[in-house]
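Worked example 3 (structure in, sequence out).
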C-alpha cells in the first residue's frame, strides 16, 4: 500500500518518512508541506537523513490524497481540518496524530469518517495506550479520597497545553470514576487558589529542552501515592504506531472514526 505524509518536514514528518521506508508492506507515496516552506522541492529521503528516494516534497495535498491509500497527518489543527475535507472528497484513509483540535476541527474528522477509515489518537505509542487503560482501571478501583493529578513534560517547541495525551489520560481517569472530565478538570492553578476540590482532576504542564514526552498520573491520598508513568525516549514510537495504524486501515474495517485501541486490539480486552 502507498502511504503519503502531510507535514513531512516537521519533527514527526521526518521520522514518519524514515519509518515508512523501513516498514515492510508499504511504500512511500509522497509528502507535502505548507505553502512557503523551505522544504518544498527537497528530496524526501534527504529530509529524513537517509539516501535520496527520488520524490520531492510537494505543496499539492489533493494530488497526494488522490495518489495514496492512506495519509498520515501530524501537522496542526487547521491543516488537519483541511486534510479531513480532502480525505472525504477522495475517500482516502487518514491517520491523525495532530493534537489541540477544537470542536469544529473534530467535527471535520467525524464527517470524513462517514466515508473512509479515520484513525485518531493523541498518542500513537503502545505504552501510552496501555497507560490509558491502566489509568481508567485504577481510577475505577480507588475512590475519590485519592486525588488525581496528571503531570506532563514536553520539549520547548510544543504549542498546545496540556498535551493531548495528558487530556486523554484525564478523560480515562474521569471515565473510570464515572464522571465527566469537563466538570472536574482543574487546569489553571495560580495565585490564591483555595484548597483542592474533592474529586478534581488536576493538570500540570512542564515545557523545556528536547523532552519527547513524559506523562504521570498521580493518585494521592493520606499516607500513600500511586503513580503511573510513561516516558517516550524517541519519536520513533509514535511514528511506528502511526504506520501500523495506516496499514490497519487497509484490513477491512468499515468507514468510521477509530482509536489506537482498535488498531492495537485493546478494545477487545476487558
Ligand atoms: P512540527 O511543527 O515539527 O511539524 C508540523 C509540520 O506540519 C511542519 O513542518 C509544518 O510546516 C507542517 N504543516 C503545517 N500546515 C501544513 C499544511 N497545510 N500542509 C502540509 N504541511 C503543513 O510539529 P511536530 O512536533 O511534528 O508535531 C505535529 C503534531 O503532532 C502536533 O500537534 C503534536 O502535538 C502532534 N504529535 C502527536 C503525537 C501522537 O502520537 N499522536 C506524537 C508527537 C506529536
Amino acid at each position: 500500500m502507498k502511504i503519503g505524509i502531510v507535514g513531512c518536514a516537521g519533527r514527526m514528518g521526518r521520522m514518519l518518512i524514515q519509518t515508512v521506508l523501513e516498514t515492510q508492506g508499504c511504500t512511500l507515496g509522497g509528502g507535502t508541506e505548507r505553502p512557503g516552506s523551505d522544504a518544498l522541492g527537497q528530496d524526501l529521503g534527504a529530509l529524513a537523513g537517509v539516501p535520496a528516494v527520488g520524490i520531492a516534497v510537494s505543496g499539492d495535498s489533493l494530488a497526494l490524497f488522490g495518489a495514496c491509500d492512506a495519509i498520515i497527518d501530524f501537522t496542526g489543527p487547521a491543516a488537519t481540518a483541511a486534510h479531513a475535507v480532502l480525505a472525504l472528497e477522495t475517500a482516502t484513509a487518514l491517520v491523525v496524530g495532530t493534537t489541540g483540535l477544537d470542536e469544529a476541527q473534530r467535527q471535520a474528522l467525524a464527517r470524513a469518517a462517514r466515508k473512509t477509515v479515520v484513525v485518531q489518537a493523541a498518542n500513537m505509542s503502545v505504552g501510552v495506550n496501555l497507560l490509558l487503560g491502566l489509568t481508567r482501571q485504577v481510577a475505577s478501583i480507588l475512590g475519590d479520597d485519592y486525588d488525581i493529578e496528571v503531570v506532563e513534560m514536553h520539549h520547548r517547541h510544543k504549542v498546545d497545553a496540556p498535551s493531548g495525551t495528558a487530556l486523554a489520560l484525564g478523560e480515562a481517569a474521569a471515565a473510570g470514576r464515572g464522571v465527566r472530565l469537563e466538570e472536574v478538570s482543574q487546569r489553571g492553578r495560580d495565585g490564591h487558589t483555595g484548597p483542592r476540590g474533592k474529586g478534581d482532576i488536576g493538570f500540570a504542564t512542564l515545557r523545556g529542552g528536547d523532552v519527547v514526552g513524559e506523562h504521570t498520573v498521580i493518585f494521592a491520598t493520606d499516607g500513600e501515592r500511586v503513580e503511573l508513568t510513561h516516558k517516550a525516549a524517541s519519536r520513533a514510537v509514535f511514528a511506528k504506531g502511526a504506520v501500523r495504524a495506516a496499514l490497519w486501515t487497509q484490513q477491512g474495517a468499515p468507514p468510521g472514526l477509530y482509536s489506537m485501541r482498535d488498531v492495537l486490539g485493546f478494545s477487545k480486552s476487558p
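Notes: The mean pLDDT is 96. Residues 6-7, 9-13, 32-34, 37, 61, 74-76, 79, 97-100, 121-124, 238 surround nicotinamide-adenine-dinucleotide (CB under 6 Å).
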